[in-house]
Amino acid sequence: MRDFGFWICDFRLASEATSGGPVAKGSLNRSEWLLLAVTVAAAFAIALFKVNDFDIWFHLKGGEHIVQTRAIPWVDPFSYTATHPWVYHSWLSGVAFHLLYAAGGWVALLSYKAGVIALAGWTLLRTVRRAGVPMAVACPLLVFVLYAVRFRLDMRPHVHTALFLAVFVYVLERHRLLGSQISDFRFQTELSARGKGGLWTLPLVMAVWSNAHPGWVAGILLVVIYLLGYFGFWISDFGLGPALNGLSQEATRRSQSQIANRKSQIGALAGILVCCVAAVITNPYGIHALLLPFQHVQSDYYKLLTLEWRRMPFNPEFLSPGSHHFLYGSTLYWVMLGLVGLSVAATWRALTVTSALTLLVFGYLSVTARRHADLFGIAAFPIWCRHVTLALDKAKAWLPTLRPAGVNLGLALAILVLVGVKCS
């Protein structure tokens, strides 16, 4: 009987999987496509709710001012702070919001926001599918993550950060798999080492991201984490050197090939990191756009006045299913944090350097400032999916045998009912 980990990696059509017939890697059967479509639609619905944040008016007015003057403002034109220097870090989002509002009002604006979140969700699902995670695991976990960070899905420029960070996760994971002969333990995929895994797209995304929202720092941070992870693997590969004498000639050749691949990955990603930083300066404000996020972080006064920069609350008064306001946070966030920790602890031997750094860094950011909760959900999602799948693989002897199609259809129905009840 074929190992469960490889079965989920193939995503074979049900009829061909049982007969052993060849199929293209990554193909989904009909029930999986249905579950995928329902989940993306659910992501759209979860993000589609009324405006409850007053910042949108500022961005609508800022975008209108840019469209009318056809110039990026360097001086604040508004009443209270008029004539003061102004770095409008989210000017591109403001322009987009104004044009959408002018064309279709709130319907167009809120539909756009929900579409961006749905696209981010689809990107994450595509990421974990490449790593061999079944839709039956990834889809319900994605819905859980979206509800856990729903308080961060307001109509504001940071919705673009959610999408762009998901794109960064996808590209970096693709590069990690393409450039290595050994991936995360059982999640060995038969991907060739050709190309750079689409790394060249990251500076292009960063050029847009840095004009849409200062959350671009999360993308730079993620690239640094993957680079450190590659260094960790490279050092461990060299540490195996003395033991190679006891290996077969084929094993020795593969290990040496690994080291060469790691060196190539490090060089390529280091170059992309430099290009991404340079892309930030393409912002009309230049070096000021690069420094602004760090100036905000260093200002205790700014963080004291800005509620979303405060720690994620964990008080009884906030522990209610409806506590999805950005001022309070979300009870489900803490549940998500605990479940991620449990799944990683249950399969800790599969934890890579990159995954550990991602969880620690983004987990710390989300706990210390509630505005980063969605960043943790996005960055940790592929890691959570992989470890849950490994945990299910370990427990398969105690789990009932179910038809995959039945599981997928049941999950699709459950997601439809859940979203229908929550959105009604």
Descriptors:
424 residues, mainly alpha, 16 helices, globular, disordered N terminus
Word description of this protein:
- This protein is 66% helix and 0% strand.
- The protein has 424 residues and is an all-alpha fold.
- The protein has one domain (4-409).
- Mean pLDDT is 79; it is low at 1-25, 181-195, 237-252 and 316-328.
Q: Order of SSEs, N→C?
A: HHHHHHHHHHHHHHHH
Radius of gyration computed on alpha carbons:
23 Å
Q: Please give the alpha-carbon distance between the first and last residues.
A: 45 Å
Specify the structural class: mainly alpha
Write the layout of secondary structure elements.
Elements: H1 4-10, H2 14-19, H3 30-46, H4 55-69, H5 91-130, H6 135-148, H7 158-178, H8 201-212, H9 216-239, H10 249-280, H11 287-298, H12 300-305, H13 331-346, H14 353-368, H15 373-394, H16 404-423
Helix pairs in contact: 3-5, 3-6, 3-16, 4-5, 5-6, 5-7, 5-15, 6-13, 6-15, 6-16, 7-8, 7-9, 7-15, 8-10, 9-10, 9-14, 13-15, 14-15
